[in-house]
Target: N-acylglucosamine-6-phosphate 2-epimerase
Amino acid sequence: MTAPLTDALTGQLIVSCQAPDGDPMRHPDTLVRMTRAAQAGGAAAVRVNGPEVVAATVATIDLPVIALWKDGAESGVRITPTVRHALALVDAGAAVVAADATARPRPDGSTFAELVGAVHAAGALVMADVSNLVEGREAASAGADFVSTTLSGYVPGPPRAAGPDLDLVADLAAAIRTPVVAEGRIATPAQAAEALAAGALAVVVGTAITSPTALTRSFTEALGCP
Ligand SMILES: CC(=O)N[C@H](C=O)[C@@H](O)[C@H](O)[C@H](O)COP(=O)(O)O
Model:
C-alpha cells in the first residue's frame, strides 16, 4: 500500500492546512476551503489537524489526507501523542497518520513502533515527524512509511534556524530507504525545489501558503508597524 502513495507523492507538494489555537482561520469550514484551494493549485496531498477536519476534508476533496492531531502542551509530545489519537484519525479517513517520533516519552507510554503497528493494522500509513537523523533512523526501523523533518528546531536542543533544515533532509535521504519528506519553514518555491534536490520525496508547505496572519505579520514587522 505504501508504493502507490509514494509514487503519487514523488516530486510533489503537500499543503499543510492548519491554524493555531486562537487564529481566526481555525474554523473547520475555513480549513476545508484551504484544502480545496490546495487541490485547485495542484497539491498532491494535504496535511490537516484533528479528526473533525480530517473527516470533513476526506468528504470534500479527492487528495490523500495526511492527518495529525495536535493535543497537549507545546513543550511535550503534541503531534498525535497517543495510539488513541492515531486510531481516531484513521477512523476519520486519514490515508496517513503523522505522529511525533522524537526520542521523548509518549504520554500513553507507547513506543513509536507500537503506534506504527496499530495504524498499519487499522489500514493506514505512518509519517514519522522527527527532529534529527538519529530519530529518523529509528523511525525507519520502527516501520514508518515516510520520515518528515517536521520537528527540526521544535524540540529542546539546537536553536531553530530561520530557514528549512535541508541538511537534515540530505542526511536522512542518504541514510534511510524510507522516503523522506521535507517540512518546516519552507517559505518560497525556490526552497521547495532545493528540498527536492536535497533528496526529499515531497515537500510540505504550511505557513507560507495557509497563514494570512503570519504572512501579514511578516509585512507589518518589516515595515516597523506597531
Ligand atoms: C512544529 C509543528 O508543530 N509543525 C506542525 C506540523 O504539522 C505545523 O504547525 C506546521 O505548520 C507544519 O509542519 C508545516 O510547517 P511550516 O508551517 O513551517 O511550513
